[in-house]
Amino acid sequence: MYKVALLPGDGIGPEIVPQAVRVLQAIGEKYKREFSFQTALIGGAAYDATGHPLPEETLAVCRNSDAILLGAVGGPKWDNLEPQLRPERGALLPLRKKLGLYANVRPASVNSALAEASPLKEELVSGLDILIIRELTGGLYFGQKHREDIPGGGQKAVETLEYTTEEVERVARLGFEMASKRNKKLMSVDKANVLESSRLWREVVEEVAKDYPDVELSHMYVDNCAMQLVRYPKQFDVMVTENMFGDILTDLASQLTGSIGMLPSASLGGEVALYEPIHGSAPDIAGKNLANPIATILSAAMMLRISFGLETEAAAIEQAVAKVLDQGYRTGDIMQPGKTKVGTVEVTDAIIKALG
Ligand code: NAD
Ligand code: IPM
Ligand code: MN
Predict the structure, then answer these.
(1) Where exactly is the site Important for catalysis (predicted)?
(2) Does ligand 2 come within 6 angstroms of the Cβ of 278?
(3) pLDDT tens digits for 304-336?
(4) ipTM beyond 0.90?
(5) Is 201 marked as a binding-site residue?
(6) For a substitution probing ligand 2, which of 78, 92, 140 has the most ligand atoms within 8 Å of its CB?
(7) What SS3 state is found at 107?
(8) Which of 16, 30, 69, 246 is the most exposed place for a label (fewest CB within 10 A)?
(9) Domains (ranges, CATH) in the chain?
(10) The pTM is what?
């Protein structure tokens, strides 16, 4: 029995998480695996129901599970709450930190049926398969934060960007491990020409590299990296970078694949792993059966592979997704001329059917 905590959250979260659950149930039936699901509140939904975006009970449900599947949190309704009650700063970041999830693995691979859905030229992206590892519990997100009034008028806002040797080392090590299982190329992305934290980052990555002589390490500044990802993305394979750079570069990378609705992620390193799409709660399309559930369904596949060791089942989901895209089913975000436009539920129906 595999125990999965479900945290649907806000916006499209409660639409996409149930689709991934339907796919997991279909996998369970086909391969005789038993999954149990326990749903808990997080984000604005939790704030509305309990007065706090990350109730203790939610943490307990997570800690008592074998893996966590999260939708997304946040939305305009909660944007003006005080910071520690906001879904992002009051729930998602503390959840990652409390569970020790220091590495967020975000694969961006281009499905052959979608190569022409990318805003980039087809030949630049077709066959692309990159893996971005984003440090998840350090950096600006978790530094000191404060505001003060400036005498005479205005305010000053301060945040600190902090990294320790240990924080860089563990995520770098994961980068090298993943690179050694792929094409033995690791790109570390930083801003070492300006930031002291990046200079430490680079020194530590160089040090860890000594343990992986067969992996070719290179470094790139983050501004150049953003440009290179658009200019010639196939030069990259495994990349490792700090928290905020990784947040921004992965949204950018999602466009190489056709849509942000396609990119899954796994947050690793702690007591229990968390799987979530890289996109947000998409308030502009919430509640309309328009959201692309594939990023969440592929996150569930990552869960099967990484947390449960169910490689065959994970690959079956990925193949079913590929088949449905080949068949021409498209949610609005990846719609192309001549294809069949379907909703959140209908594309999942097709994926379940393709599972056989
Ligand atoms: P977003 O990712 O929610 O949406 C950006 C754009 O992409 C929107 O036009 C949206 O409709 C579209 N989009 C996103 N996911 C999609 C999907 N599955 N299918 C089709 N289209 C999709 O980013 P945003 O608008 O900057 O943020 C909205 C809210 O989500 C904010 O409150 C933000 O803080 C929050 N957020 C949460 C997470 C998370 O929980 N992990 C991640 C990012 C943003
Ligand atoms: C993500 C999101 C979050 C982040 C926000 C909502 C805190 O953008 O998961 O990519 O920046 O980590
Ligand atoms: Mn993001």
Answers:
(1) 141, 191
(2) yes
(3) 999 999 999 999 999 999 999 999 999 999 999
(4) yes
(5) no
(6) 92
(7) strand
(8) 30
(9) 1-102+269-356 (3.40.718.10), 103-263 (3.40.718.10)
(10) 0.98
